[in-house]
Fold this sequence. Notes:
Largest sheet: 5 strands, parallel
Helix content: 40-55%
Distance between the termini: 34 Å
Structural class: alpha/beta
Shape: globular
Number of helices: 12
Strand content: 5-15%
CATH superfamily of the largest domain: Aspartate/ornithine carbamoyltransferase
CATH topology of the largest domain: Rossmann fold
Order of helices and strands: HHEHEHEHEHEHEEHEHHEHH
Strand order of the largest sheet: 7-6-5-8-9
CATH architecture of the largest domain: 3-Layer(aba) Sandwich
Amino acid sequence: MTTSLDKEMSTPRGWTKRHLLGLQQLDADEITAILDQAAEFKRLAAEGETKLGALSGTYVGNLFFEPSTRTKTSFNLAAKRLSADTIDFTAAASSLSKGESFVDTARNIEAMGVSMMVVRHSSPGAPQLLTQHLNASILNAGDGTHEHPTQALLDIFTIREHRGDLKGKTVALVGDILHSRVARSNIWGLKKLGARVIVCGPATLIPEQVEKLGVEVSHNLDDILSETDCINLLRIQFERQRSAFFPSIREYAHLFGMNGSRIRRAKKDILVLAPGPINRGVEITPAVADGPHSVIIDQVTNGLMIRMACLYLLHQTSQNVLQVAAQGGS
């Protein structure tokens, strides 16, 4: 089905970037451009327009050097909803095992006609490195403990959808802030849109001098519940931890888990978010995860729209660059 979006190929106002590496590098207008574009895609989907031709003829490479289910599936579906072709890369079955470098692997994939690459890697800065060696647009799908921009964008989009303007809203990020790339991206995005941000967790899982990012710090979840509009429960990053940061999972759940008792003491309209996968019974009890305050499933749906928006905007910028280059050479 052809839509007005397929016909109108100008880059939306407020967006000029060729890469999306993190929210630290974006301003409020650029973040809003992504959110607004995602809202437009969601409106079109509600009207039954789920297959758009905006990226027809484009090849998107999904380079995942870390395991992923939700993010990889979401990006795959987002590309296909925009009519792009996708190439999936799995590190375990690649030439990396034969000694090929990370950059050479990406360059070989680009040589097959791939013009956009979605990259997840355990090393912070890996997507940025590719921008120095490739012509393709690079979209960061999570790099080490640095950033995970599309997860933060879908979190922010979900809050905006349910609560409107983020300015003046209080958002608490609870849990493993130290190892969380999601927390870092959320902090950058939320602060730029005017939200008040509180990070909460054991002292051992809160980075030193995190207040310099403009956030407040609490080590007691019960103390902040009455003033929190939205609570984002971050997963304990067991796979990134090299030592014990709290005595036991049971104690963590007792002190920082969102349960029925805490929901009853929180604001009556509090939103409960959680980037997957969730550890039921640790960060959140099943009753809360599946309860009326939870928007966790909405986050998954909105993640598809955000990733469609990011791919579309990066593609549009690249097309504009090519058009300008062609006009200059004519």
